[in-house]
Design goal:
The structure is a homotetramer of 451-residue chains. Chain A contains 16 helices and 21 strands. A 6-stranded mixed beta sheet of chain A has the order 1-2-3-4-5-6, with helices on one face. A 5-stranded mixed beta sheet of chain A has the order 7-8-9-10-11. Chains A and D meet through α8, α11 and α16 of A and α8, α11 and α16 of D. Chains A, B, C, D: This is MBL fold hydrolase.
């Protein structure tokens, strides 16, 4: 009896292959799902069931694809906002046996109406759960967000409260297997720890320690979460069942000539590091370093829009492409194979972004340049906690929608916590025609560290 | 904060890489220890500490080698039967910090005098342990064997009882990370489940449910465990620190000619499957299918004896070689590259072993051949539970020592639970000059299934 | 400018990825064709062209699939026995440029009417070819078989003669890149050497040294080649374009119970080694050791017939499955996960085959058993060269068709050159109800070696 | 019979594993030599011989290490500048048999006095060589440099001429296997093609087409080659036999804190891309993008000097480390794990380099800044062919020695062919205290392209 965690970096999405005695099931498979079959075979197991904790909004479910590959049956909770085309509905108390491993279904709504948890028992040993898959209901150090039904905010927060009590009732001994880890946008303050138990969470998870239902609802309602526009597409696809990932996820290398003859509407996503983008980049390209794609690409790329990448090497292009495919961006036309020296040696145009050190910023405060403005692109929560006096706020993800509130002719220094999101934001501004943009590398971190 | 389990198949040895915030430690590294460094680098961590739960008797510790590779400090418990040359001694209550991860030392003697457990805390969260590394003190579903100090049997069983209480006192919420899993010879009845918590074990581990110290001691003393002779070598090497594993673990392919000109004393270990050995094998070869090497090779190969392998392919030779290296058998001269058709097509000699089906055995009971005897080579515990009437017992591992009690001229049908250990035993008999040996494939399993 | 050979073991099929300056083409891709894209990306190249030297009869062409994956254009020769649906036709003298790499088309019929060769030039250097892809026209040490148009035997042998002269006219300096290497059934006496040049072949390839067209035709007509029945299917599929290989080529592990409830018509292919099959195997299973599948499976499995495997481990099942997929056997229902000890311990039935050493055979000649007959299953060519007196001949591949000429009640000892093909043949006999079959391990090789 | 090329990128060093009939030899192994053993085992071969074409000056020979790992015998030519401690001497006409593969030794001095070539014959076929390993005597499209004996310049050029004739006499049919490919500093104008034959080279290799010995000598003497200082160390180590590469080649990740407390003399090598270095880098770091390490690190790092890396990720650190180890830089203390945003967010210092586009340069020519000077760091050969008027020259490799001829207070724009070497040079200047340095990205390439 084994539980193998399969983690999708960036999304911090956790899925699980659980096997016993020649059979296996998968909890919350991702779209590129060959890995579950390969791991199962290595362990001598055949995948017969797929359990979904809820309809995911931040990634494409691999359940319909994996079901087709393996013949496995997909189980989904009731009350999805429509019929989950590829799944059977399972309910509170349903059980599934895999030899001496028994799975029991708990309805745990709140994060979504269809949220389920799956408790795991070893019938050779005893009547208590050994572990529980909690989806987005309970995380390590946090609980699920409840902002998806804005007009039912109190109700669903209350539902989550009840669901969490139901999960905790499984007992302190049960190991906790959530659907996301630290770094995910699906929670707010997850622990940067990859293992826990219900007993540990009961004692030390701040949200679980709120013993009053009312206090809990109040705390949940006070939270602020962002919803990137691509969430809508995910929800739709995860009802009907998305197509399989492309057979080959590595994009095609393109020459500078091919790159320059791309259709106008193509988005150029520069997946290189922040520093590489600052040093030189293709005019009009959007900076999203490969590891940041899962969190930020969905804010800027529209469904169906053709995309090309700039990457330091094929490995980076592959990682970027996998990230994009997991959130439904399939139409990757290729990636630029040459690094900036080769590109520029062809006489082709490039841009650099001026990079500001914290000392430069302090100097500017002493002698402010004309029309100068610090633009802070962190989340509103971070900004409200503490910010540099005189800075204005616009969240990096929402920037395309809020550009009109900024002045194309002003001199903006973009900042965030370190300079990473600031570089994304600077690229958004540059694409929109802002010509006096520089990046505060180190950003609020450096500001505080040198205070 | 992550805990990565690294499992050595066959030995069912579990070691752990634990990392947090750029630093990492390893618990109970195995001899071929590059993997810890590679995994640590992937996770952006530097290994600075190595913790040993006790002096291993069933495998070579990688601690001294890994320490040299990384500069990490090795920590070992007090009361090892001598000075652990490569380690510092750590004591009850010592703590080690890795950012917000704190390790606390518990002295938990019983399995050995130097046994330690290591509790892990997340100081960002709370004062209770999140997990505990228990070495060979506590397993999932079982506890450590206490037969290593025969003249102090009651005392050490009692020590273990106390140690287990000390571990359980960490609380139900703590995850359990033992040094062995199902299949190891270090326990008796481990669960075939790879995850548990103290809470779960407290409730469902039979040995932990014995609430009386006296009853526990009695139960432990009643156990019977085998100790392969190579244990002595491991204990010695793990005091002084063994040499690193060879840089290349795959043995050299040898031609039939090279194979035939090996020194007399060379042991030929046939690592192919049971069925392949039965079908045809080199005269004088010892059958130990690759996955069975960790459990059985140590019974038959003497320290320093040259060894060659027969393998179906280089991958099998490599697996066999890794198993052997982990238990200190380094002098592998190579492996035979050709399969039996090629070997035999050169006019070279080979043997087959007659294979008996359960129907053949029943038929024989009806019409017994001359001088016929069933030889059951299972453990004495298995044999005593249930056996075929008229069979005699000799444990497969101890066969070289008990051969003289058998009659070289009798007709033996060797059996075990399935035929696997029986095939090893048959090869031992064949090497010793027994000429009327056949193998009961299916063995006691088939006997019961067709009853 | 690079040429990477991609070899499919067993079929000894050679395909090539050729790249220059960011672009690449593939010659004769196999069905599981992701590898070309991956290799091309690693080399910074985009595949834009696929060249087929001819319509393959021994494997499924990956050209239509690879074309769909990459957008590349497929080029095929004229005079295919029908319209190659997925390809454009290219003719003598057509050229294709990839930077300074130029490809020139030569029509080289004979093996098939549509056979092409592709000469490669480096236009930065000179007017002579650096290399040539010859498909099945010219091999290292041999030339293509010409038995596919039985009623035009002399004509096509003559055509091949002319084609070979045309190829040789490219000059001694040109490197030779054929579509098959030693071990393929597409030639008769290929060198076991993986590299050559036209100059070397001109001097030392026996067939090329026949200077008279008449002598060449005579020699070709005197050859005897076997054509497994699946060739017909390959030819058909390679006109219309076969489906892609399954996304996951590793078959599903099945339990003994699942295995026993398979539909009657399912073929059980035992892919383990010869010796493992001899030792014990499932009743009714067909022995085809994994590496022999490409050469022999096509004789016994009918299109569309469901297949399950017996394999020593998942890796062997995967290799077997890849071999089967390349020749169009897709309907793999799974593989048996347990080895024979576990299988038999469940009380399930198994068979063994008696194994004869050359000494046993000689002893039998001295005291022949009743009704005893040696059955030699080598090729008719091998048999005619030399055989054991008194043996009868039936080619292993044709055995299903020639069974009726044998006597189910006789005692057959099956032999070949080593025992490998004999074991396949013995399994065919056993499945057909022959009950007195044994295998001469070592076979003719041992007979000669001990003469 | 197979020849597998093993290529070391960057050095463009080519070594070969050649196998036949269960035995294998290696030509010119590199220091990290486990790969040869692994490849040999996969092919069922045992390495018994190692042939060295000459004493390498640009990399550490793996021959002594591989010999120890395998027991193979090392063969080296006569007239090495001393005794090759780990090798036997072999002479013109010596032969070695590997089944039907015969190796024949040719003494081919010129590049070095001890240069050998090894002709390969297939004795099953004929008396002509199938291929030849030429070391640094003959390359594809070029011949070896002859500048290592400055006081015998004419003599050794003449020796090479004779050696090349001797090689060509093997016949047009022989395939060519040199020790370096395009990109190596061991030749001057190698073809960017990875395959050739003696016949092709005879016709199209410019140097081989010089039919007069005198003309050839004259042409060789007119060449200019650079010799990085580390060549001396390689030559010394390759006489005595260098130590094995470290068991683990990936360096240790270091935190910013650990990084900042390094000993003064430590060299920080920034292995990231050119653009990443330009965007932001650690003050005092030396820019050598990972793929450029083999060609440039040997100019700047002194034997024994401690080195740390800045790398985008562990994979890049590993590649860089492997490159360094191959040229004898073993004392790698670790690599920085954080990217520049994290580094700078800690308030730590960083620099950027101003990046100039070709348009900026042209504008500067129209309005020259004060004290402005273009510094061209290409090879003297490139500079003499064509350069920007007014630029001064200093070769990038020799810059540390020629710094005193430059003015620390001037404003330098550094250029090369694309900006890559210019970035290395700019980092050298910055480390030396030049404060007004910018980089012309695109460099001479852009200058010409936009002319």
């Amino acid at each position: 009896m084994f539980i193998n965690k399969i983690k999708s970096e960036g999304l911090s999405h956790l899925s699980y292959l659980v096997g016993n005695d020649g059979h296996a099931f998968v909890v919350d498979p991702r779209r590129d799902c060959e890995i579950y079959v390969e791991e199962a075979v290595k362990a001598g197991c055949r995948i017969t069931h797929i359990f979904e904790t809820h309809r995911n909004e931040d990634l494409i479910s691999g359940a319909p694809v994996l079901a087709k590959l393996t013949g496995a049956r997909v189980l989904h909770g009731p009350n999805a906002a429509g019929n989950v085309a590829y799944a059977d509905t399972t309910h509170e108390g349903d059980t599934f046996e895999f030899g001496n491993l028994r799975v029991e279904v708990l309805e745990t709504p709140g994060h979504t109406d269809d949220s389920l948890s799956f408790a795991v028992f070893d019938t050779d040993f005893g009547d208590d759960a050994v572990g529980v898959f909690t989806g987005d209901a309970m995380f390590i150090g946090d609980v699920g967000r409840t902002d998806f039904y804005p007009d039912r905010a109190e109700e669903v927060a209350g539902l989550l409260y009840d669901s969490l009590r139901k999960i905790l009732a499984l007992g302190d001994q049960a190991l906790l297997y959530p659907a996301h880890g630290a770094g995910s946008v699906c929670g707010d303050s997850m622990a940067d720890r990859e293992f826990s138990s219900l007993g540990y969470e009961r004692k030390y998870n701040d949200k679980l320690r709120i013993s009053s239902r009312e206090q809990f609802i109040k705390a949940k309602i006070a939270e602020h979460h962002y919803q990137p526009p691509y969430f809508r597409l995910m929800e739709k696809l995860n009802l009907t069942g998305a197509d399989p990932a492309p057979r080959i996820t590595t994009p095609v290398p393109l020459s500078p000539d091919e790159f320059r003859s791309l259709p106008e509407k193509t988005v150029i996503v520069d997946t290189r590091t922040v520093s590489a983008f600052l040093g030189s980049h293709l005019p009009g390209s959007l900076a999203i370093p490969a590891p940041m794609i899962p969190a930020f690409a969905g804010w800027y790329i529209e469904p169906g829009q053709p995309v090309v990448l700039v990457a330091a090497d094929p490995a980076q292009a592959r990682v970027a492409s996998q990230h994009l495919i997991r959130i439904g961006v399939d139409n990757l036309e290729g990636f630029l194979t040459t690094d900036m020296p080769e590109w520029s040696a062809g006489g082709l145009p490039f841009h650099s972004l001026p990079v500001m050190h914290v000392d430069d910023i302090r100097e500017r405060f002493r002698n402010p340049p004309d029309d100068w403005q610090i633009l802070d692109v962190r989340s509103i929560k971070e900004y409200r906690q503490e910010s540099i006096e005189g800075s204005v706020h616009a969240y990096v993800g929402e920037l395309p929608q809020t550009l009109d509130q900024l002045d194309r002719n002003r001199h903006y220094t973009v900042m965030c916590a370190s300079g990473a999101r600031a570089t994304i934001a600077a690229s958004v501004l540059e694409r929109a025609g802002f010509s006096r943009v520089d990046v505060f590398l180190g950003s609020f971190g450096a500001w505080k560290a040198t205070d």
